[in-house]
Every structure is written in structure tokens, then in C-alpha cells.
Amino acid sequence: MSDVTTPRFRSVLDRFVAYKPGKVVVSPDGRSFKLSSNESPHGPLPSVLEAIGEAARSVNRYPDNNATALIDAIAGHCGVPADHVAVGCGSVGVSQMLLEAVAEPGAEIVYAWRSFEAYPLLVALSGATSVQVPLREETHDLTAMAGAISERTRLIFVCNPNNPTGTVVGRAEIEAFLDRVPEDCLVVLDEAYREYVRDDEVPDGLELYGDRPNLVILRTFSKAYGLAGLRIGYLVAHPLVAGAIRKTFLPFSVNAVAQAAGIASLAATDELLARVEGTVKERDRVRGALLADGWTVPPTEANFVWLRLGERTMEFSEACDAQGVSVRPFPGEGARVSIGSPEENDAFLAVARAFPHRG
Ligand SMILES: *Cc1c(COP(=O)(O)O)cnc(C)c1O
């Protein structure tokens, strides 16, 4: 097929490898644990399943393109007016909407690295240029990030807690950073893991954006709310910003089943947050056990732990695969391991314990 002439594609596509779905790994005794995508280990609540089933009866109809009932429910949940909210197809979709609104060739988008894998992809697709600022001690270096701002900078992602390291930046640091960002440059505080945070020093973005029209708070239903498969994310920002971003919405891209499930999930917040509490306890147990075994694990406020394995990352990931535990390796850097059920976490800890990592 190599002599086939294809249409001319954008050269940026040459930089991407085709998406490889995570493979299912199975242990010799038939166990398979997926700790690679930071999902909730729990299936949907009965009340959410019922809403999904009810909404499924009407999928011959287009969804509400304004997602009015969902946006009202999110606004009520966050204690903000509805015109401060915009929704999208996952928070990845909302991130793409944000870039649609501000990015163009010549524009620069600043973010920490390593951070969320979607950022470089979305920035490249937007035609803008990524400016990656190395983590310092596995944590956002907000001083260096402020120093990386130029007159071409249009948007800055701050992922708090950071994926994949789990580390956080505190209120005073974030406020000092925001004070240094020009008012015409957006700051997107990606709080995908907000519900797992227990450190009081970490601000809730919703308390910060009020007097800062350039600050956008990004949230998702994919993690604590357990709806990764249905794709709903949202932002909260000044109404002029939320209104501008809504204009970039791909029509109907938050589907009717997702809208109904999102509303039902917000109605079940107490039950869902009780599940999160269990994950937080497991997170602290898993990190404690790893530390006791001599591993170095950055403090994590998310539903995963980070092991900086360097050149041994793939060896470790293969050792996990062999026991039916799939983790997320970043070759040459480290592995991110999601917190699952106690049984899943024990399976991971057994592999970690048997892995020769010291010295
Ligand atoms: C998982 C994750 C998201 C969620 O993405 P969705 O598109 O909402 O599923 C967003 N940001 C970060 C940093 C994440 O790790």
C-alpha cells in the first residue's frame, strides 16, 4: 500500500502515533485488574442506571443542545449562577473548546511536564505551540511557569492534583502565580481529582475564580462521579468567558444519556462521595505500604500513586501485567497506578513487594 497517494494531511498528524488502546492483561489464575486509567472501581449506582435506562428510551431524539437541565444541576451543585457554567464531551472536550477559543498558530500554551497526556495532543491539534515547564520534585513549578509566560501566551494549564504524579500546589502559591499572569491570558485549573483532595492547603478553585475573570475551573464526571464512559466535563468561569467558550461547543456532543446520568449522579452526590472516602483510605494505605517497603512515592491527593522507575519502568509494568494488573507506564519515566478495590490494590502491592527496586 506504500505507493498509494493519500490526500494531503496536516503535517502535525505525522507527530502522532496511532492511538493504542490499553490491552487487557490476565494473570495465570485468570484475574484481571485495570489500574491504568484512574477510573472509579465502582459501577453506576442503581439510581443512575435507572436514569440511563429511562433516557435510552428517547435516543431517537437529539439531546438538548444547551444541556439546560444538566447545567442548572451543575450550577446548583457548585453554588454558582448557570451562566458561569459550560459543558463539553468530557473535560478533554472542554479543554479542546478552550483551545478553539484562544489558540492559533503562533500562540503559546504553557503547562507543566510531565502532566496530563491530553494537553500536548490538543495543543498540537489546535496549531498552537506547547511550552512545557519541567516539574520540580514531581510538583508544578509555578515560579518557573510564570517565568515562561510571553506576550504570545494565551492559556496556561495547571493540573491540581497533577496527573500522573498526584502532587498538589497550595493556595498561597496559586494566588501568587495568578497575580503574575497577565489578565488577558487564561489560566485553566484542571481539578479532575478535586473530590479526592484532603489537604486543607489546596484551594477549591470555585473559591478562587470569583474576582479573576481569566481563571477557568475545569471539572469532570469521569473520576469521582464514575461516568468515564459517558463523557461529561464542565467548566466554571466568569460569564463572559463561559459564554465565549460555549460558542465552540461541537453541536450535540454531550449526549442525552450522559446528560440524564450527570443529573442523577449529582442527585446522588452523598453516596458517590462516600465511595470516594473509601478510595482515599485505600490510597493512604497503598502509599503507606509502598513507603514501608522502601519505595519513594510522592505524596498524592488523587486516586493514584506515582513510581518514578526511570529505565526500569517497562520491566515493572511487565511484572504487573504478568499478575493481571494493568498500570500506566511512561517509558523511561515512571508508572502511574490507580487506586482500585482493596483486592486490586493488594494484587498491585504484591507485585511491587516482589520487584527488586532498591539500590
Ligand atoms: C482523567 C482526567 C481528566 C478527565 O477527562 P475526561 O475527558 O473528563 O474524561 C481531565 N483532566 C485530567 C488531568 C485527568 O487526569
Structure commentary:
- This protein is of the alpha/beta class and 359 residues long.
- Helix content is 36%, strand content 15%.
- The strands form three sheets. A seven-stranded mixed β-sheet has the order 2-8-7-6-5-3-4, sandwiched between helices. A three-stranded antiparallel β-sheet has the order 9-12-11, covered by helices on one side.
- Strand 5, helix 6 and strand 6 (186-190) form a beta-alpha-beta unit.
- The model has no long low-confidence stretch (mean pLDDT 96).
- Pyridoxal-5'-phosphate (PLP) binds at residues 38, 90-92, 116, 159, 163, 190, 192, 220, 222-223, 228, 233.
Please state the overall shape, judged from the principal axes of the Cα atoms: globular
First-to-last CA distance: 49 Å
In terms of DSSP E residues, the strand content is 15-25%
- Catalogue the unreliable spans: none
Strand order of the largest sheet: 2-8-7-6-5-3-4
Q: Provide the gyration radius in Å.
A: 21 Å
**Number of DSSP E strands:** 12
Average pLDDT, to the nearest integer?
96
Q: What string gives the helices and strands in order?
A: EHHEHEHEHEHEHEEHHHEHEEEH
Bound molecules: pyridoxal-5'-phosphate
Helix content: 25-40%
Largest sheet features: 7 strands, mixed
Number of helices: 12
